[in-house]
Amino acid sequence: MKTLLSILCLCVSSFSMNLKVTTLNSPYAVDSILVLDTLIIEEGGSMFFSSGSGLIINSFFKSQGTLSSNNVLSSGESSPTQFDWSGILIRPEASAFIKNTKISDCIECVKSFSKNVTLDSVTILNYGQDAVVINDARLSPVSGIFTYHVVEAGSSKRKSRTPYYLAGGAVLAGLSLTLYFLNKDDEPASTTSTPDNQSNTIKYPDMPGN
Hints:
Blueprint: H1 2-14, E1 18-21, E2 28-30, E3 33-41, E4 46-49, E5 54-64, E6 71-75, E7 88-90, E8 95-104, E9 108-112, E10 117-125, E11 130-134, E12 137-138, E13 146-148, H2 156-159, H3 162-186
Parallel strand pairs: 1-3, 2-4, 3-5, 4-6, 5-7, 5-8, 6-8, 7-9, 8-10, 9-11
Antiparallel strand pairs: 10-13, 11-12
């Protein structure tokens, strides 16, 4: 019973782990399926994966290198193959930002069930099955580089147009009112006789929309 409880505790703790990889603890060696809530790889960081290992991201993954110093995720085996490690799996509720990073020697190097993923200047080499799969869509590189970004509906880009719509509507409304009053002033008053107990009335065109 104690053994079973220990196994359960280990499983739960693996789902609440956070890891930061820097130049100080690189290369970070992984020899199993590593399940993390958050993984951040800083500039110049690297991770080496033993055969059969891999990454699962529950919440957030960020790897941001530079053009001159790419972050590296690759096999730690002496003779790397295309099937050494499973790759990076991103769960549906997670998000990822991967920039200036080299990933190699994996079966499915980036497999995401979330659309909230940004790839910017990502190089993937020596992969077994797929380089990048996002929601069952296989991505193709451009000149060997993967780039991917989705702007969701209702994003700031779409919302930024709202003030222009409002301003345009106000201008059109003002123009309509101006034309209406100009037409009203030009139209002669009615001279039809009325009984003494009734006042003369001036008939103007109805306002647009009335």
